Amino acid sequence: MEQALALPENMENKELNARLREIAEERESVLHQLGSLRQADERQAGQAARMECLRKFVEHRETKFAIYDDAITRKFVE
Fold first, then answer.
1. What per-residue confidence (pLDDT) applies to 77?
2. Which domain holds residue 28?
3. Other CB atoms closer than 10 Å to residue 30's CB: what's the count?
């Protein structure tokens, strides 16, 4: 991530210092959230690619039992 804002320690206005620290912390939080969202997007893209690959595989796969036969099912159950 990017470097945090460097705040001068000898500034006289304590309210300004406090506000600058708040802004710096908020900035770091936003950068962290952005990184998390990017990772989630990459993970989702990978999952979508994998699903597409599986879909293509299933489309080209021959089906062994294309016709349902109740007699075959009963023999398996018995």
1. 78
2. 14-77
3. 10
In angstroms, the Cα distances linking 43 to 9, 37, 39, 46, 57 are 42, 10, 6, 5, 21
Q: How many domains does the chain have?
A: 1
Residue 5, in any domain of the structure: no
Residues 18-28 pLDDT 10s:
899 999 999 99
In a domain, 50, yes or no: yes
| Residues of the chain under the 50 pLDDT cut | 1-3
Could you tell me the pTM of the whole model? Answer: 0.52
Residue 6 located in a structural domain: no
Residues 74, 78: Cα–Cα separation, whole Å = 6
**One-letter-per-residue 3-state SS of 14-54:** HHHHHHHHHHHHHHHHHHHHHHHHHHHHHHHHHHHHHHHHH
Q: Do residues 28 and 47 make contact, with C-beta atoms less than 8 angstroms apart?
A: no
